[in-house]
Amino acid sequence: MNLSKRSRYGIRALIDLAQVGDGGCTQLSDIAARNHISAKYLVHIFIALLKAWILGNRRFRCPVTFSM
């Protein structure tokens, strides 16, 4: 089964959130650095995940946002 690069990066980022996340906030730049993914590319992936309701938006409860 072949997955697109975008799908593989999205899955790697979600796994990273599950392993490193403590229920608090995590910056996308940290996720990108740990997984060797471009931060700008990861922003686009996370926007798609938010629109698909795979990720919840904690924007108003978290001081860190997805802006670059």
TrEMBL record:
| Protein name, as recorded | Rrf2 family transcriptional regulator
Q: Name one Pfam family in it.
A: Rrf2
Q: Which InterPro entries match?
A: Tscrpt_reg_Rrf2 (IPR000944), WH-like_DNA-bd_sf (IPR036388), WH_DNA-bd_sf (IPR036390)
Q: Which organism is it from?
A: Blautia hominis
Q: Enumerate the transmembrane spans.
A: none
Q: Which SUPFAM superfamilies match?
A: Winged helix' DNA-binding domain
